[in-house]
Amino acid sequence: MPTLPRRKEDVPTNDVYWHKAQAENKMLNKTYDVVVLGGGPAGLAAAIAIRCKTQASVLVVERQAPGEERLGESCPPETILLLKKLGVAKRFYQAGHETCPGYASVWGRADAGYNDFIVNPLGPSWRLNRKIFDQMLVDRAIECGAQVSWSTRFLDAFQGNDKALTHHLILTAVEDQSPHDKKTIEVQTSFVVDATGFKAHFARTLNIRKEMDDQLFAIVRFADVAAGEGVKQIQLEAVPEGWFYHAQIPGGRVVSMIATEKPSIYQLKRDQFRPFEKAIEKTSFIGPNIRKLSLKEHSYHTCPIHSGYLRKVEDQNWIAIGDAALSFDPIAAQGIYKGLSHGLLAADKVAASFNKEETRFPSFTDQIDRQYEVYQRNRAHVYSLERRWLNSDFWSARNDRINAVVGEA
Ligand SMILES: Cc1cc2nc3c(=O)[nH]c(=O)nc-3n(C[C@H](O)[C@H](O)[C@H](O)COP(=O)(O)OP(=O)(O)OC[C@H]3O[C@@H](n4cnc5c(N)ncnc54)[C@H](O)[C@@H]3O)c2cc1C
Q: How far apart are CA 43 and CA 342, in angstroms?
């Protein structure tokens, strides 16, 4: 895919705003060696690992304000190996995240099956307190010398005509959203890490497409447990319209979710999510556990779930990582692990280019291709285990679409 440089004149910047933004963002420089777009697990891991391996100056640009709620709390046992490499394993163990003995699922049959982590030499899987986990990564990135610019949105990019192919990145403060008077600042960099999540905002400015092979929608509910004792396992339950997920999370909270097709989402959201509450309470396995709990302070999130990959994930002076490169169905519970591992791989690429080291093989592109193939096969296997409602919209679509993709491979 050609990556034509865009002309600087195409994107207006504003010098007055630049000075205001500098004051608010604790003095952004005009130039950084590396700019990481997105401060999720992938972006922060990349910032930490790049600073550990190189002397490069690193700016992380994050649209959200610090401490906002993020989705995803379940991590496989192997996550600890990545946290060691990032220098945060000790802090992680001390931070009060909870272990999870395994999964209990009603999937493909009416009674529950159990999948325990007891035999895994790396220990149990984890249920994260996301706020503490995210803050741990931010603290580590700053301690390693990266700068984080919160509430700052990446808008656009163009390449200079210099030999080094410098990127010119156009940023704006999130609160400054007036469409007619959007004031911007420009930051220049030799290397961009696109860690902006599944929309891959930077890659889009290069006209690189995302290939999607499935799309679901989720309703996620967080709630505080006012009274009652839940079960420690993560619970999964297939229903004709999709599947439910329920887990206790640290801080006396629970998270409950349905993954389903778009039309069901409209129906479940009505009347302040009452149909969602009724549907989960009616399930045969998760329902009785939820009814034992008294829940308060509900908060709901509705979001699309994309399975797909970016057609091109790297070039000489940029790389796309985490969900920007590959996004998975949460049935895989791999998103955070994938983000952290891509962050480490991005640092290898940056170090190779800044320290003039040999590039490692297999290339990041090859690893991504392989990872997506494995994911597609595993996803097809998991969905093929449920054959009770092959006439329902959800299960027939999963079986047709997903198996077709694997059949083509
Ligand atoms: C409902 C649901 C449940 C999930 N549950 C789990 C789970 O239990 N376990 C698990 O491992 N994974 C789970 N996932 C997947 C997981 O959340 C993602 O895979 C993971 O967060 C990807 O990390 P990332 O850093 O690549 O992207 P993200 O976490 O999406 O981070 C991208 C960041 O970029 C920022 N950003 C975006 N655009 C811009 C811009 N233009 N300018 C500046 N910043 C920008 C965003 O604000 C965001 O902070 C779940 C996903 C969903 C949808």
A: 9
Distance, CA of 39 to CA of 50 (rounded, Å): 14
Q: 336 CA distance to ligand 1 centroid (A)?
A: 8
Quote the pTM value: 0.91
pLDDT in tens, 220-230: 999 999 999 88
Helix (H) or strand (E) holding 404: helix 403-408
Place of tokens 């930077």: 202
Domains annotated on the chain, with CATH: 8-87+131-210+308-368 (3.50.50.60), 99-122+213-306 (3.30.9.100)
Which residue has the least CA distance to atom 14 on ligand 1? 72
pLDDT in tens, 302-353: 999 999 999 999 999 999 999 999 999 999 888 999 999 999 999 999 999 8
* CA–centroid distance, residue 312 to ligand 1 (Å): 20
Amino acid at 90: K
β-partners of residue 299 are 222
Which among 214, 234, 323, 341 is the best mutation to test ligand 1's pocket, defined by most ligand atoms within 8 Å of the CB?
A: 323
Q: Determine the distance separating the centroid of ligand 1 and the alpha carbon of 16, expressed in angstroms.
A: 33
Residues paired with 31 in a beta bridge: 188
Contact 195, 324 (CB under 8 A): yes
* Spacing, Cα 197 to ligand 1 middle (Å): 5
